[in-house]
Amino acid sequence: MEKEKKILYSGMQATNTLTLGNYLGALKNWVNMYEEYECFFGVMDLHSLTVRQNPAEFRKNARSLYALYVAAGLDPEKNCVYYQSHVPTHAQLAWILNCFTYMGELNRMTQFKDKSAKHADNINAGLFTYPVLMAADILLYQADVVPVGADQMQHLEITRDIAERFNNLYGDVFTIPEPYIAKAGAKIMSLQEPTKKMSKSDENPNATILLLDDKDTIIRKFKRAVTDSDTVVRFDEEEKPGVSNLMSIYRCVTGKTYEEIEKEFDGKGYGDFKMAVGEAVATELEPLHKRYDELMKEKSFIDKCIKENDEKAYYFSNKTLRKVHKKVGLTELIR
Ligand code: TYM
Fold this sequence. Notes:
By secondary structure, the chain is mostly helical. Helix content is 53%, strand content 8%. It has a three-stranded parallel sheet with strand order 1-2-3. The chain has a two-stranded parallel ribbon with strand order 4-5. α3 packs across α12, α4 packs parallel to α13 and α7 packs across α8. The structure holds ligand 1.
């Protein structure tokens, strides 16, 4: 691959709808990256299969995720936005990298431990090798940077370890990717238990703002957000995790600094503050909702983008796969 611009790679699982955490920690930061990087963003549907899915709903969710990417401002004509499962090189490289990854390394992954505890009746091999598929995603495109939320850091580290191990054996095959963690929004917390990350799978619906929640729901959830017995709006993650989380959300959507926010709510109670955060988030999401509704009706536009970008992703990723085949000694394809 010719490297004029550096390469950026990221993606999200196609499970349920996105949360405000996914949006502020990842998606919102992706939309202008194409100016500086050659960007690839996947709808990570193969990863979603590690948890049992209802087929019809799953297909709908993947489509909805693609539309949400675009509605949030990710231009599929400037970024390669594609479906992971449509590009066979991902599964092919993942198999090879499985043979260069140790059980001990995978055993240490906290996401594996968390998910196995949550889905004790379905601790499948895919869940265990999940990070290897993620490494394949990233390494296939020779990505220089991978923008993710803080929770994906460990997966990025194992990706780098696998790539370095492979390069040590076979020469410079893979670019070693750098994580890119946003300064604001990298870890949005639950609105009900602010020491826990906001997550799609939270059982308490008030804990999570879903990206497609309507305005009233957003405001209601913020009004119910857990704070503390104090009354001062001040950033202190240790002592005031609930208020600090709301401040960081407010900062992401308004661009104000923590100092400015503290000043704005000086002498006002938590009620006013929560209302302002709710209003600001609802206002931020309003154009996204409108565009999303339009896109879900414009079937042919999305179909065309998926087709073109699937082909582009295959073209780029196959170059790396062919190189890997050659390096490890697999016999070349006869065409
Ligand atoms: P996923 O689908 O769990 O999350 C997508 C992105 O959202 C970020 N995120 C958050 N950021 C801030 N606060 C939160 N509460 C929060 N919750 C989620 C995640 O860090 C992530 O950036 N394994 C990946 C998907 C993936 C991938 C890849 C990512 C598959 N292959 C290759 C990058 C490169 C995942 O589960 O993300």
